[in-house]
Amino acid sequence: MEIFLNGEIRQVEDKLLLTALIKELSLENKRLAVEVNEDIVPRSQFDCYILSAGDKVEIVRAIGGG
């Protein structure tokens, strides 16, 4: 199925869990904010949130510095 990931079309498997997408992107154990269809998804829901075709996913990684 197709989703939009940070504004670009991406092919992923059907009924992909959000945690699986994060792992596929090598972002596990990183400080992230995830939004699906303009709604923030709490980290506590990553492992049960199932993506659907056409979802608009935005993933922002927090980077420290100063």
Could you explain the architecture of this structure?
This protein has about 70 residues and is mainly beta. It has one domain: Beta-grasp domain (Ubiquitin-like (UB roll)), CATH 3.10.20.30. Helix content is about 10%, strand content about 30%. The chain contains one helix and five strands, in the order ββαβββ. Strands 2-1-5-3-4 form a five-stranded mixed beta sheet, with no helix packed on it. A hairpin with a 2-residue loop joins strand 3 and strand 4. The mean pLDDT is about 95.
Summarize the entry for a quick read.
The chain has 66 residues and is mainly beta. It has one helix at residues 18-24, and strands at residues 2-5, 8-11, 32-36, 39-40, 56-61.
List its traits.
mainly beta; 5-stranded mixed beta sheet; 1 helix; globular
Spell the H/E element sequence. Answer: EEHEEE
Overall number of structural domains = 1
Query: What would the average pLDDT be, to the nearest integer?
Result: 94
Enumerate the spans where pLDDT stays under 50 for 5 or more consecutive residues.
Answer: none
Strand order of the largest sheet: 2-1-5-3-4
**CATH class categorisation:** Alpha Beta
